[in-house]
C-alpha cells in the first residue's frame, strides 16, 4: 500500500506516461512540465550565444537547481526524530503520572488530525510537520512511560528493536535482495487494509469492555499478529525508500524532502509502537 504522504504527491512514484496529442494542423503538442506547480520552469528558447555560455558554465549542483537530494531527506528526517525524542523525553519526565493518560490522548488525537492533514497536502508545510512531530512525541512519551512502568526495560528493547529493523530494512533494500514491484505494493495494500480492519474491530471490543487488555491480541495469537504487523511495517519502509529514490531521480523540488521525511517518520512511529506492544504481549504470555 502506498504511503499517502507519497502517493498523494505528483512528484513521487513512477513517471507518468503522457501521450503527445496531434494538433489541429498536424503538429505535436508539448507535454506539460510536471514540476511547474512547484516553481521549476521548463527550458526556454535560446540562441547560439546563450547555448554556448550555458555549456561553458560550471555544472549545476542540486542546490543550484533546487532539487531534492538524499542528504536533504536524511537531515530533515534526523531533525524530526530528534524533536520527537525531545518531546517524548519531556513528557516522560515532566508530566505527573496522574496526567499521563490525558497527555496520551491529547498527543494521539493531535497527531492523528495533523497526520491526516499533512498526508493529503499537495505542498508540504514544515510548520505542520513539526507540530505533528511534537504531538506524536507527547503521545509516545506518555505511552512509553506507561509500558515501562508495567514491563521494565520494554522501552529500551523497543528502541533498539526499531533501530535494528530500520537498518535491516535499508540494507535489504539497498542490496537489491528485495525489490519493490507493483505486485509487492498490491500485496502490501491488501494486507494493510485487512490489518486496519482487524485493529479497528479489536479496538472497539476493548473500548466497550467486551474484551480486556489487548483484546484479541493476547497469547500466541497476539504474538503472531504482532510479528505480522512488524513485517508489514518493514514492507512499508521499503516502499517509502522506493518513493524517495524515485523522487530524487525525477528531480522533485527540494521542499518535497519535508514530505519524504514526514512519510518515514510516520512509518517509524508505527514500527516502534508495534514492537513495544509485541514486547508487552510476550512478557504477559511468558509470565502466565
From TrEMBL:
Pfam families recorded for this chain?
BaxI_1
> What keywords is this UniProt entry annotated with?
Membrane, Transmembrane, Transmembrane helix
| InterPro entries for the chain | BaxI_1-like
Q: Where do the segments described as Disordered lie? A: 1-36
Keyword Membrane part of the UniProt annotation: yes
Q: Which spans are transmembrane here?
A: 73-94, 100-120, 127-148, 154-175, 187-211, 223-244, 256-285
- Where are the compositionally biased (Polar residues) regions? 1-10, 27-36
Output this protein's name.
Bax inhibitor-1/YccA family protein
